[in-house]
Structures are given as structure tokens and as C-alpha cells.
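Two proteins were folded this term; both appear here.
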Amino acid sequence: MFVVTARDNTIDAEGNREASPDVEVQDEIQRNIWIPHCNEEIKPYKKQVFPNLDTAFEYYEDYGRECGFTLRRSTEKTNNAGKTILKYFVCSRAGPNDYSESARGNSSYKHRNRKTVSAKCICPAKLSLRADWENSFFVYKFIETHNHPFASKSGMQFLRCNRSLTDFHQHFIVDADIQLTSDGAFKYEYETDSRNRLTRLFWADGIGRQNYEVFGDVVSFDATYRTNMYNMVFVPLIGIDNHWKSVTFARALLESESSENFTWYCESYKKIFGKEPKCIITDQCAAMKIAIENCFPLVKHRLCMWHIMKKLSAKLGTLFCVESPFMDQLNKFVWSDHATPTEFEDGWNEVISKFGLNDNKWLQEMFDLRKSWIPAYFNDEPMVGLLRTTSRQRYNNKKLNHADDIMPRPINKKKIEMDAAEMYTRTMFYRIQEEILAGGGDIEIESWNLVDGVKTILIKDPISLSKSFEISLNLETHDIDCSCKMFMRVGEKSQCPKAKDCWFEFQGCISSASGNQDHIDYIHKVLKLMRNNIKLSQRKGNSRLDDESVEDLIGSKIVEETTILPPNQSNNKGCRKRITSSAEKSIGGKKRQMRECKKCKKMVYHDSRNCPTKNNTDKTTLTNHFL
């Protein structure tokens, strides 16, 4: 076999030049081999004949869709007549990534400082076709091995080849009419009036219920939506997932915002999920407060900061809030993550007195409620970001999990940063990365000691040098505590359950094996085997739109039909018609139309009687008369 090797090109035995990775990359490819498992009937093979390149690409694309990867058209070779005689179809992850050694040679790379990731990993998989004398194409080389895991079952829908809708999918969407069902995954509660018209509805699909099991410690009730044709109150039950994005656990439609309806909402919540949250965050709805106190007496109830702060401009005046420094000075104490209750109260009173607002009743009411919405009073409680806004929308957790198959770009390539890139979701990694960078350059350690199995570190705040934070680690119980309480508020739920215990077990193994290379090699071997086994369990997947896939998508089976009449038109706040002005009534309640003014000859809303140019002309005439 005749092979000429260069940095970026090789020539195979048939004299064809192809892209080739570096020697180090080839070694990496050999260590990570992934072979698709599928029906042999759909797998390409050598000397397989296709009438044209499009047919060949579609065949290879169907194979990739079944196995969990996407592909793209690559280079081709033509003869003197311009006819294609050689064509390559490659895995979409072929080629060097944006931050590999080969990509660093590109001058434009130095200017890329954004938080981006590259899916390319120099995957060797490809299908090579050669033209024959009958204007057809045959497979002369097929490499089925990849150097990366394939899309999981839940990630199949996000492959590029699955982003377009076939005729079957379009008809399925049009014909699908999912009724109220119950098969163990999809749960619902509803009530009707004496005429069988819907008055209350609470429902949760299988995916929402699964998410609640993991992320349901802190939830929010948001009854501010009115976007439905019956003007019913739409109340989603929302939390934050491990990507720091909103995730919807359940939804409800209520006839009105009464304490009776919200009580029914809470009782349905408990019946469907079977587990109470640790904290509920709402706006200042009095009816909702009564329902939560009756149904969840042991659950902490907090108010949404965003809703309260949003009212400031309405209560104090938009011009005052925009043009004065009042908001900037107040925000420093309201939104602070590290202020103590005393620091907040002193800061609030100072700002209120400075701007002469001591007699404002609404501000006094908000100050009296401070323990329900100011973070300084519950820094040690998990809020996971929901306290700052309950106005969140559902986010596709599956899509983010699929995107996490691609490693984010490290900055300084420290071991702790590389470990965090593998352990955390991409969104959480970027937050952790900022902490790692700050910890490596900004902080200043004042003291470090170990007493009775507890390691204590005193760190000076890089922003406020007069403040220090104390971190303690119990080496026996593995409990971690910091005086800033940030980990308690937002850190614990970013990991899956038991992740902390696993980490300390690993750390304990490393400590026990310290100094013994054989033990370290054994730990590394076992961990690598465990990781490969986990990856193997995620390889297989099915992209066919069969009954099982549909059920997985909607989280339920269609087993029976329940007929309920549509609800009555509700008349809740925020859904009434705007009061029509006298001017609008004079023209039938319709908006005024533009017309041509006979005075200025322009298409405008005024006419010749009130045209601005007429007033100017009259003034000029009057001035000339006196002159």
C-alpha cells in the first residue's frame, strides 16, 4: 500500500488525496471507537451501486438517522469535462474543532473570545463513492467507526436530519387531537359546573412529573397569564433545572382568581405530585396567599422580587425612577446576595430618608414584608434563581441535555476546570468557570487552619475588601458551608442527587492511594471502565415515529376519551376591554384613518381646520398686519 503522509493530507493506494488528522489525533481516534448498532439491511457496503449522488446521500442519511448521527457532503473530484468522478460524504463532526491545535493556526482564531463550543472532533466516519462507466456511483470505501458517542433516544429529535417535517409528520400533527387521558404518566384533575362546562383544570404530563422529582424543591405559581380565548387564569407550575433554565412541571386553567380556586389548585397539586415543595414563590396575590397557608402550612412562602420592584415606577413615578439615582442606590441593598439583615435595613432607611420618601405608605408596606422577599433574610434557603422572577417560560431540557454531548471550551485548561466541564451541564459550567477564574486570581486567603477534622479558610472579598467570607469543610461528614450561603441557594440543585457523595468518595480514594502509583493506576482504570459503560448505555436509540416514540414525546398513551363542554367566558382582571375615549366614540370606536390635508397636501391625521401650518400662517399674517 502506497501512502504519502503530510500534516493535512494523505494519498491512498488509489492515488486519491484525502484530509487526515495529526498523528496525536489518530492515536486519540484509536482509543475512542464507536460503532453503530443497526439492522444490517440499512448499512452501506462496498461496491453498493446508486443511480446518482442524491440517492446515495439519502441512503447514508437514513443510516445515520437510525444510528444517531448526522452527516454532510464533503469534497469531490471532477474530470476535465466537469463531471463528478469522486465524492465523499462524512460525519458532521469530521474536521478539527475551533480550539484544536490545527485550528489555532488560523489567524481568526485569536479573536474568538466568545463562550462557544465546536461539535467537530475529527471523526473518521465517511462514505466514499466513485463514478462508473454507466453514470452511476458505487461505494469504494466505507468507514463506519466514529470517535464520539451517538445521540441518545431523547436527543434524536435534535439531529439536523430530523429538523424537517416529512409529509407523514405534517399529517400527524394536523390529525393529532390528544384528549384527556390517564395511563399512569399523564395526570389531571378537573371540575365542571351544573351544565358540564369546564371551570377548573390541572394537568401534568410524564416529563413534567419526572422533572418535579429532581427539581421540585422550589416552585413558583404565576397567575399573570391571560392568553386564551376564554380569558381563564392560566397558572403554570415552574421550577429551575440543572441548565439554569425554566422547566414547567404542570399547568392549570382556573375560572377566576379566587381563594377557592387557588385552594383547589393546591389540593390538585398535592394529589398529582404526592410531594410538597420546600418553598413556594408567588406574586402578592392575596387569594393565593390564603390558599397556600391552608394547603401548605409547613412550606415556606416567599414573594417574587421582580414583581415588587417592577411596581416602583407606578408607585413613585416613572420620571423620578428614571432620572434620579434612587433606583441605583436602592438596588445595591435590595438585590445584594451577601448583605446581612442589618446592612439591608440600614441601607434601605438611608436611601428612603435621602430622597424624602419616609411617608410613602406603599414603601413602608414593602419594608414590613421584607422577610418575605429580601434575600438577606433567607440566604441559607435554596432559591435557585426563582425569587428574582416568576415570569419564566418552559425550556426544552431534552435539547440542552443533547447539546451537553459537546464539551465547552476551557480557558486555562486547569484540571479542576476540565473536571467541571465533564461533570456539569454547559450552562452551569460557565457559571462554575467564572468562579474558578475568580478563585485563581481575584481572591485573597487570609487564614487557613484545621481543627477537629474541620478545615476552615478565611477569604477576603475582592470587591468589598472590608468583608471576609469563611468556608468550612468537615472531612468526616463531607459537609461544606460558606458564610455567603451561595452554594445553599443555587449550588446544590445544579448537581444530580448523590453527586456530592460520589465526589467525596472519589476524593477519599485519591487520598488513600496517595503516593502509591499502582493504586492510582487502578482507580483510573476502574473510573475509565465505568465511564465507558455509561456511554455504551446511551449509544442506542430509535428515531422512527412509532407508537413508543409518540408516547415518549407526549409522556402519555391515548387510552380513552372524555367529553367536556368548553368553559364559559371569564371576566378576570387584565382581560376586560379598554375604556373607549370620547374621540374614538365619535368615529364609531375605530382608530382614526390617515387622510390628505387640503392645507398642507400631506397624508396625516389632522385636517385643514387644525393643520399646524395654518396656525403658523395666521401668526405670520397677524405679525405683518401690525408691522
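Next, the second protein.
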Amino acid sequence: MPTVRVGRDRLFAALGRPYTQEEIDALCFDYGLEIDDVTTEKAIIMKEKHLEDDGDVEGDDEVIYKIEVAANRYDLLGLEGLARALRVFTGTEAPPVFRLSSIPRASMLHMYVKPQTSQIRPHIVCAVLRGVTLDEARYNSFIDLQNKLHQNICRKRTLVAIGTHDLDTLQAPFSYEALPPHEINFVPLKQEESFRADKLMEFYKSDMKLKKFLHIIENSPVYPVIYDSNRTVLSLPPIINGAHSAITLRTRNIFIECTATDLTKAKIVLNTMVTMFSEYCENKFEVEPVEVVYHDGSKTVYPDLSCYKIEAPLSEILGPIGISLDVQQVVCLLNKMQLQAQSYSLKGEPWVSVSVPPTRSDILHTCDLVEDVAIAYGYNNVPRSKPKCMTGRQPLNRFSDKIRAEVARAGYMEVLTFMLSSHEENFDMLNRTDDKSKAVIIANPRTSEFEVVRTSLMPCLLKTLKHNIDHPRPIKIFEVGDVVTLDPSRDVGASNNRRLAALYCNRVSGFEEIMRLVNSVVKVVRALHVNFGEYYIPTNEPEFFLKRQCKIVTSDGKQVGYLGIVHAEVLRKFGIPDPCTFVEMDIEALL
């Protein structure tokens, strides 16, 4: 979850009164937030630089709250949105109404999009904040919100990149283009000399902050770039803005542009930026729109600050919470969460109509209204009751734990391994061939270690043994876990199967040790419901020695497992010098 750092004094000033530590903790908790840490700027710097003496540390002793917020609440990523939400929640302020400036379309600023941008970053949305009053704290908050959005919804600038500019230093109209790197020259932010775009990439490879974004465009034949009518570069998204239009404390009019590969995310990011900082505009909560003109002639005005409606019956909202309220009480609770709600009646049943503001992009469904009503009502105020549905443990999980306990009593240590493995470990290293009918293959795996979903627990235990080969003998390990195989009869095309696997490694094979374990497990299962007769039948599997392996079957011929001495070739491939015996049993078949 994202953590927002806000100064205590600024937060209290924004809330309208001071709070004790207990009061602010309770207020944040009631709203679904948590104060993760209380620290100071100096302490943060000392921790980041691993210093023990604060004598040479620059920074003040202002108390700073680190507040955890929900990952989908982008409106809470800055002080402005956080304080506004708490003021509305406590009833000291009504939810704001955001509006666009009433200017004719012909008088709007225009952003012209060239067709080449479709090769690299096809979307752009823009807006203007007029008459903004900034001080150092507001400026820092403005930059901090951009950084938080870049790390969160923007996915480290891969989906969206935000550019903010001093509009008074620029000349409209603007153009969004994609050009070869050698054709782009400008002075980047915090620099004094001009760079060609490809040379700038080399320059920033040594920059700790910006080098992690270079991969987004550096291998592209064209780079995205934004110009004004004088061919002054505003920004080279998603890397850096131009120095010419840098924002300062004297900036009065801010031009905001968001380039993106995901238009929906870009709209959310732009709405978040303008709704958070339009409160500092001369006309509070008013945003000037910008018309984006595409190369095909289509035109769109941004930002879209319109509200959208969600309607739901009262019973659908209160049912999942388990409380009884009248419709007006629910309307009041929703209003506390910045959701404008009204009640009406449909066929004699009370309904709620909710107008969702542009700040609440997390509201997508009725269940989101249920969550907000529960938060506003107070989770601690919801009466305790027994669930009407079964919430106990599944029989398979209970049975698996009994098997675990039985194997542990036999002296085996449980291990927990990954569900994914490499194709080589799952087949070739076990002397098995892949007939393409069993294993679920991972598309575009990030690493060769995770290419397939395991079809057996055997490679996992052998790999665990390999990494712990220096432990004293005997090594006795086991795992109870799922394997996955292709299954055309299932709607998802595959099925899980719970297995027990155990591995014994010593100077001698220890076949009798594994047989003793199997007999112990079979004894427990037989006492329950399974009828075993002569349950060992010889097999011919390539991962075991011939005539040193068998399958485990019930009296009706149903196979529930197999065991044997692991083949020397398999042990060599896994780098294991000592003989091993392995058993794998189908727990679901036993159940």
C-alpha cells in the first residue's frame, strides 16, 4: 500500500484544528487509513543516509506522519486530497463541486497530435490551472503528488507520464510529435546546456533517479516530444521536462499534460492532478479545458470532470454489511465519503442514486458503495453475527493437515516450494518426455526457472535437496502441495491435484524407510475408509531404477501413488551424490 508523508502541523492546519495523537489515530482508522509511523524530516534523512549523528544533517524537527492509504485511492496520495477527505468525513466541509471554465471552444488552448506518436505513446490529455498561488509547501506537495502517481497508477511512467509547465513562458498552440532522436534538441530540466535526445539518454544513464525510465523509449526509432508554437520543447516524455517552462514559486498559470499508452489511466491521472490543486486557483475548483486535435481530424476536450451515476436498491447495499438503516441514513453516510447520494422509490422499494465525482475513480460497482457505507458507519459498529454460509476449513485441507502431522511424526521435515518450475527440471532432468498433454506452459515467462506449472513434486524436492546437500545424513524431507495438469473437461482447461511427496537421502538408498512411511500413511487411511489389498505393483518409470520401483493401488485397482529408488542419471543431473528414495501419493484419491 502507498505511504503518504505529511507534516503534522500542515495537516492540522488543513483540518482546521489540532488533534492529540490518539484523536488523529482514531480519525484515520475510522476512515480506513493507518498512521504507519511518526517521525521527523531529520530522522528520515539520517535513516536514508545510514547516519548515527544528527549534527551534520540538514532538516528541521517538524513531526511527519507516514499514512498508509489504499492503492486505488489516488485522491489520497497528497496532503490536499487527504485533508479534504477527512474534512468532508468529519462534516466540517461539503464535498467540492469541480467545474470547467466557461470559455468558447475556439478560445481554448489546442494540442495537435501528429500521426507518428502512434508508434510510441499514442495518447495525450491536457488541462490548465489559472491563477494558482504557490508557496514552498504547496510546490513540494505538487511535485510529491506527481511522484506518487508515477509510482502507482502510472506504473513507473510506463502507462502515463505527467508534465507540468509554466504556461506564461510558452506560446500556444502546442503539438505532440514523435521524431527521430537526432532531430530533438533542448535544454532539460536542471541543466544549462542543450542536449540532443540520443545524447541525453547516455547522459542520464548515470542519473540514479532517471536511468530507470530510459528503457521505456530508448530503443524506439522515434521519441515523443511536445513543442509550443515557437518550437520550444516542453518535455521529452516520459523522461524529463524542458528547463524553459519549469515551474517556480512565482508561477501563476500551470499547463498540465499527460502522455500515455493507456488513455483511461491518463484521464484518471489528469483528473487527480487538477482536482487536488484547483483549490489553490483564483477561482476555486475551476479548471480550464484544452482541446486535443488528432491527426484524423477528431477533437476531444479534456479534462472530463463530469460525474457518473450508480444506482442500487437499499437492500443490495446493506445486505452484505449486515446492518439495518433507513435510506436517508445511508445517503448521509455516502455523503461523508464525498459521494453525492439521493434516495428515491422504485416499485415500493427504496433505492439510492449516487453521483460519483472525478476524484473517486475507485468507485466502479455497487460493492464499492457497500465498502464506503461500511467505512462511514464504522466497522467496529457492525454487530457480530454468525455467517450464513460455510466458512469452515475444506475437508481436503483438514485431511492434508492430518497427513502432514503423520509424516512429521515419522521424522520428516516439511518444505514449501514454488508451483512453477523450468521445463528441463520438470521433464528432461527426470528422464521424462513431454507429450504436450500434461503440463501447463507459461506464456512469455520472465525467467527460465518458471516455464511450466509443475506436474509432480519430485523435481521440487530434488532441487531443495541439492541446495541443502551439506546437511548431515540422513536427509528426510516432504511436501504436501498441488500439482497442475491439463484437463479439457474443466472450464479453465486444467485441474489442481493435491499430492504428498517424501524424499529420503542417505549413504544407502533407504528404500525400506520410504516403505515404512507409506505403510504408516496407508494404515491411517485404511482405518478411515479406504480398502487396501495387495497395494504394491511393479512399474517401469524412467526416473527410478528398474525393479526398484512400484505403484500404490487400492484393492479396486485405483492408483494412488508411486515410489522407488531415484535413478543415478537423475541424481547426477540435479547434482546429488548420494542415493535417494522418493514417494508421491495422491491425497485427493485417498480422501
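The chain has a mean pLDDT of 90. The chain has 16 helices and 29 strands. These notes refer to the second protein only.
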